[in-house]
Amino acid sequence: MPNNHVEATRVKLIFNNEEVTVKLDDHSASRDFLTLLPLTLTLEDYSNTEKISDLPRKLSTIDAPSGIKPSVGDFTYYSPWGNLAIFYKNFGYAHGLIKLGHIESGIEKLTSMTGNFKVTIEKVTE
C-alpha cells in the first residue's frame, strides 16, 4: 500500500545554477502539489515580498486552514488565485494562503534574483 504522507519530504528549486531546498508540510495541499512534479515555472516578484507563479491547476484545499501569516522562507499556495507564493519577507495574515512547507536552505539565492526567471521544482530523492 503506498504511503500518501509527505512527512520529511523535500523538494528542490533549481534556477540560475543554484538549488533551494524546501521541507514540505503533511496535508492535502502539499500532497496534491507533489503530483505536479517535476514542474517548470516562471517566477516573478510580487510587492517586493514574495516570488509568485501560476500553477497548472488549482490544488486541493480540503482541511486547509482559512489563512496564515507568512514568514520569511514560507513556501505557500494562494488558493484564490491558484498560484505558488514563496515569501522572502514577513507579511501580514492573508485569507486563502496555505503553507505548503518552508525553505530549509538557500533563501538568499531566491531573494537575490531579479526580474522573471525560470525555476524547476523536483522532489528530492533520498
Automatic annotation (TrEMBL):
<dbReference type="InterPro" id="IPR041183">
    <property type="entry name" value="Cyclophilin-like"/>
</dbReference>
<dbReference type="Pfam" id="PF18050">
    <property type="entry name" value="Cyclophil_like2"/>
</dbReference>
<protein>
    <recommendedName>
        <fullName>Cyclophilin-like domain-containing protein</fullName>
    </recommendedName>
</protein>
<feature type="domain" description="Cyclophilin-like">
    <location>
        <begin position="13"/>
        <end position="122"/>
    </location>
</feature>
<dbReference type="InterPro" id="IPR029000">
    <property type="entry name" value="Cyclophilin-like_dom_sf"/>
</dbReference>
